[in-house]
Amino acid sequence: MNQYEFDDPILTVNDVSKYLKISKAKIYYLIQRKKMPHIKIGRNVRVRYSDLLQWIDSLAYKGIQSGALLGD
Q1: Which residues are CB-contacts of 9 (< 8 A; sequence separation ≥ 6)?
Q2: How far is CA 69 from CA 18, 28, 66, 72, in A?
């Protein structure tokens, strides 16, 4: 089991939307299609900041490889 780091913020969809500067609808779209790492607690969706940064890095790498970042 991974040790939880308390200095790793948990973000709401609204937080992620503001951080990435894309709509909440797009965030939910990516989550529904399991293209973005997330945690579901009941009906609430949260994203660990460290997971978000790793995901962004992986997209940048894929973007370099294929020329498309979101893979739509």
Answers
A1: 48, 49
A2: 18, 17, 8, 8
Q: What's the pTM value of the predicted model, to 2 decimals?
A: 0.76
Pull the structure tokens for residue 30: 């990516």
Q: Which two tokens stand for residue 44?
A: 């609430």
Name beta bridge partners: 48: 10
Q: Domain limits at 56?
A: 10-66
Q: For the chain, what is the largest distance between any 2 Cα atoms, rounded to a whole number of angstroms?
A: 36
* Domain annotation covers residue 58: yes
Residue 4 has pLDDT above 90, yes or no: no
Q: Are strands 10-12 and 39-41 parallel, antiparallel or unpaired?
A: unpaired
